[in-house]
Amino acid sequence: MSSDSKKILLALFFVIDCLLVTLIFKANDNSKVSLESQSTNMKSMANKYEEINKKVDLVEEEVVLEQQPVIVYDNLTYDELVAKLNNNLNDDLAGKGEVIASKSLELGVDPYMVTAIMLQETGCKWSCSQLVKACNNVGGQKGYGCGSYSYFNTLDEGIEAMISNIYYNYYTRGMTTPETINPVYAESQTWSYNVNRYIEEIRNN
C-alpha cells in the first residue's frame, strides 16, 4: 500500500470514529440514560480512541519505513549504483548501467566485478572491440555465430548472458573473485590484476 493510500485510510479512520462519538453524545443528550450507561459509553469511546491511536502509530511507522532509501550494494541505492556504473561505461556500453545493475542484483553477482570484466574484455573503457560491435559479445564468450565466439541479437542480451555466465559457471562453483576466476576465465596471469584495477576505478568514480 502506498503512503498516500495509507494517509487516506488514516483520514477515514478519524472521520468514521468522530461520527460515532457524535452519535453517542447526541443519543445521551436526547434520552434519559443512566449514569452507569453514560459511563459505559465513555469507556467504549476511550477504548475506541486507543484502537485508533494504535492504527495511527502503525500507519506512521510504515510510511516512515517506505520513505527510507533502500540500499542495494556498497551503501548505494539502485539509482545511485546505476549512475556509478554509467560513469565508467563508454562507447557502445554507455548508458548500460541499469542492465548491468538489474541482472547482477537479480543473480547476486558483484556489479562492480562484472563491469570490470566487461571493460577488461572489450576495451570499452575507451573504444569497444569489434567483438562487441559486430556480435554484441561483452565477455569474450566462446560459442557460435561470430566465428568461434557467441553472437547475441542485442547488446542487452549479450550483457545479461555474460553476467549469467559468471554466475552459473563461476559463482555457483565458489569462484567469486577475480583471483579465483582468473585461472579458468583467462590465460593471462595479470588478468585478475587488471580487473581489480577497474573495480577500484569504478568504486572511486
Describe it for me?
The model has no long low-confidence stretch (mean pLDDT 86). Helix content is 66%, strand content 4%. The longest helix has 33 residues, at 35-67. The relative contact order is 0.09. By secondary structure, the chain is mainly α. A hairpin with a 2-residue loop joins strand 1 (71-73) and strand 2 (76-77). It has nine helices and four strands. It folds into two domains: 3-67; 71-204, Lysozyme. Helix 5 crosses helix 9 (191-204). It has a two-stranded antiparallel sheet. It has a two-stranded antiparallel ribbon with strand order 3-4. The chain is rod-shaped, with a radius of gyration of 30 Å.
> How far is the first residue's CA from the last residue's CA?
36 Å
Shape: rod-shaped
Instruction: Strand order, main sheet: write it out.
Output: 1-2
- What summary fits the major beta sheet? 2 strands, antiparallel
By CATH, the topology of the largest domain is: Lysozyme
SS strand fraction: under 5%
**Tally of helical runs:** 9
The helix/strand series, from N terminus to C terminus, equals HHEEHHHHEEHHH
User: What is the CATH top level name of the largest domain?
Assistant: Mainly Alpha
Helix and strand arrangement:
Blueprint: H1 3-30, H2 35-67, E1 71-73, E2 76-77, H3 78-86, H4 97-107, H5 111-122, H6 130-135, E3 145-146, E4 149-150, H7 155-169, H8 178-185, H9 191-204
Antiparallel strand pairs: 1-2, 3-4
